[in-house]
Amino acid sequence: MLPGSRQWHQGDDLVQFFRRSGLILDAEPAGLAISAQALMSVTRGPPISHISLRNCNIPSRSLGSCVKLLSESLRELIVIDKATIDNELVKLLTLPDLVDNGQHIEATNEQESMLCPKLEHLTLVNCINATDGLTSQMIKSRLIRNCENLQQLKSVRIEFSQSAYAEDFYQLEKMLKEGLNGGVSMKKGVTLARRKTHFERLAPANVPVLQPPPLWM
User: Fold this and answer.
1) DSSP symbol at 85
2) 23: buried, middle or exposed (CB in 10 Å: 19+, 13-18, 0-12)?
3) Is 124 a member of any domain?
4) Is 65 inside a domain boundary?
């Protein structure tokens, strides 16, 4: 187990651990100290299928490297507090467009680049720092049914720590109502911003704003 009390300020130790180790990993707090030397001495074992990172100061770049290393075996990813999930990592986890070919769904030529095809459970709590709309798109891309060599996402738990995620919140609530297991919420004390209407989202950015006429004397 990797203790949550260990602060992964650079994330390099964690990446090296995944390169060296094949143990089933649970990074929930254990209340123990751990050194880079101890990580490097871990004996290889079965492929890692579960990651739970809590209060780990790991940047998105390093977390992305870890996910790539564990892509073939990862079934559950839990990230809670302090870590950063940015646009780059969310896009990395978003599956490419799929083509419907009769009874089964076949992937495009990008199938080999699919990351974490066995991912079934995803928890992201107070760590999302991506553009509004990207997180829900990523989750939706993993709800494709009957796709060969691709496991459908079974459950999600998402909690936003910033107010500007109205579109993501709306889309995730919709998916949950349609049968996806899990939940979506806001961090305590944070109020969700108003979702823009369809016309507000389509409004071009270069339209001049007309000023009100001067007051009559």
Assistant:
1) B
2) middle
3) yes
4) yes
- Burial of 44: CB neighbours in 10 Å, binned 0-12, 13-18, 19+: exposed
Tally of structural domains, the chain: 1
Residue 12 has pLDDT above 80, yes or no: no
**Per-residue confidence at 117, pLDDT binned at 50, 70, 90?**
very high
Instruction: Supply φ then ψ for residue 52, to 5 degrees.
Output: -130, 105
Inside any domain, residue 209 = no
Of the segments 1-15, 169-183, 198-212, which one has the largest average pLDDT value? 169-183
Within-domain flag for 216: no
For the stretch 130-150, pLDDT in tens is 999 999 999 999 998 777 788
Prediction pTM value: 0.72
Distance set, CA 191 to CA 11, 163, 166, 187 (Å): 31, 6, 10, 8
Residue 43 maps to which CATH number? 3.80.10
Token pair of 40 as six digits: 């490097």
